[in-house]
Amino acid sequence: KVPQGLAFASMRRTRCNWCFMSREPSTTSGRKQLCAATWTSFVKKVSMASGAIKRFQDRVLGPNRTGLPSTTSDFWLLGVCYKLSEDEETDDGSVVAALKQDFSSRILMTYRKGFEPIKDTSYSSDVNWGCMIRSSQMLFAQALLFHRLGRSWRNKNSEVSSVQPEQEYLETLEPFGDSEASAFSIHNLILVGETYGLAAGSWVGPYAICRSWESLACKKRKQSDSLPMAIHIVSGSEDGERGGAPVLCIEDVIKSCVEFSRGEDEWAPLLLLVPLVLGLDRVNPRYIPSLKATFTFPQSLGVLGGKPGASTYIVGVQEDNGFYLDPHDVQQVVTVNKETLDVVDTSSYHCNVLRYVPLESLDPSLALGFYCRDKADFDDLCHRASTLAEESKGAPLFTVTQTHSLVNHHSSCEFVEDREEEHGEEDDWQLL
């Protein structure tokens, strides 16, 4: 399928050829030759479409950097450290093999084609505009995978093709199908995200997609009990675009958990999303050490980030490079059904190619993700984040506070009524 811009250019060029033919007198055989030549030219343009997407990636993301760089620095992949050796033979290559298996077990979401049109539009593919949505689906799917199967789970379906995938694994993928019937589909995200600027054919930023996920998760939670975790957005302002370090308020997190449990418990498994603006046209170098350090947190879900207009899902770091899953490949729609008795092919949801990009070249608008299974996990995250803020030399990614009244987190999910109104305009911040 030709990307829309290329298709328009090709058709425009073809129409010009047709106009030229209609003006020139010629014999029937001459017209046939011109038509054949025009059609051949058009087919060549169409066959180059996939190559054009690849060139677009190279222009936006930079030269394609793949594999592992020639360095023995520690590689951090979503909270797990891989200590590489100068000589792979000393450990029989087991560390590199374990790293690659871990990376290939992460959930990949890419452009898809051939799905039912989105809402009342004619879009049956998200090619060239859906990369931020796909990146966010990866992060959210990873949180569900951690919740259901744990961080140590590895995908073994590629090793033994006849093995039926785990039920929990299929339950993780199924809601991300490309139809309105799938809870976390691109269709439903666009539907609930209209308030934040989501629309078929348009690119959005990290803050808008985080808020859209919050709205979608709350909507699905009200409809059923299928969502296994609360979602909390850490933001320093109402629009998320004013810069400054956001504040993780523990009191607000507890409120989100209480709302999720409908007042039955003050704690629940938690997905934290932290939209950030770390510079003007690219990430300010002073933030890079802290950004890298977040990948050492056991709660890490990586980063939604990339170049302007080209989002990726960054899952690992080594030195000053970020390793990512790329949503810009185009694949046919795949339906995953956990109820089927046949072997399900989920190979299109995984990638074996390590790709990396210099962290200093990232767009400054990005978002961090963290998953906390329980209260102890959350307390550990707060301790690590506070320590990181203290060591940031005045450039923290975000800060942590126990309680405050100057910034009030308004959740889009209200399950608890008769909440006490906060007051006290002159209260001070209590920083941990």
UniProtKB/TrEMBL annotation:
<comment type="function">
    <text>Cysteine protease that plays a key role in autophagy by mediating both proteolytic activation and delipidation of ATG8 family proteins. The protease activity is required for proteolytic activation of ATG8 family proteins: cleaves the C-terminal amino acid of ATG8 proteins to reveal a C-terminal glycine. Exposure of the glycine at the C-terminus is essential for ATG8 proteins conjugation to phosphatidylethanolamine (PE) and insertion to membranes, which is necessary for autophagy. In addition to the protease activity, also mediates delipidation of PE-conjugated ATG8 proteins.</text>
</comment>
<dbReference type="InterPro" id="IPR046792">
    <property type="entry name" value="Peptidase_C54_cat"/>
</dbReference>
<feature type="domain" description="Peptidase C54 catalytic">
    <location>
        <begin position="98"/>
        <end position="384"/>
    </location>
</feature>
<keyword id="KW-0963">Cytoplasm</keyword>
<keyword id="KW-0645">Protease</keyword>
<comment type="subunit">
    <text>Interacts with ATG8.</text>
</comment>
<keyword id="KW-0653">Protein transport</keyword>
<dbReference type="InterPro" id="IPR038765">
    <property type="entry name" value="Papain-like_cys_pep_sf"/>
</dbReference>
<keyword id="KW-0378">Hydrolase</keyword>
<keyword id="KW-0813">Transport</keyword>
<comment type="similarity">
    <text>Belongs to the peptidase C54 family.</text>
</comment>
<dbReference type="Pfam" id="PF03416">
    <property type="entry name" value="Peptidase_C54"/>
</dbReference>
<keyword id="KW-0788">Thiol protease</keyword>
<protein>
    <recommendedName>
        <fullName>Cysteine protease</fullName>
        <ecNumber>3.4.22.-</ecNumber>
    </recommendedName>
</protein>
<dbReference type="InterPro" id="IPR005078">
    <property type="entry name" value="Peptidase_C54"/>
</dbReference>
<keyword id="KW-0072">Autophagy</keyword>
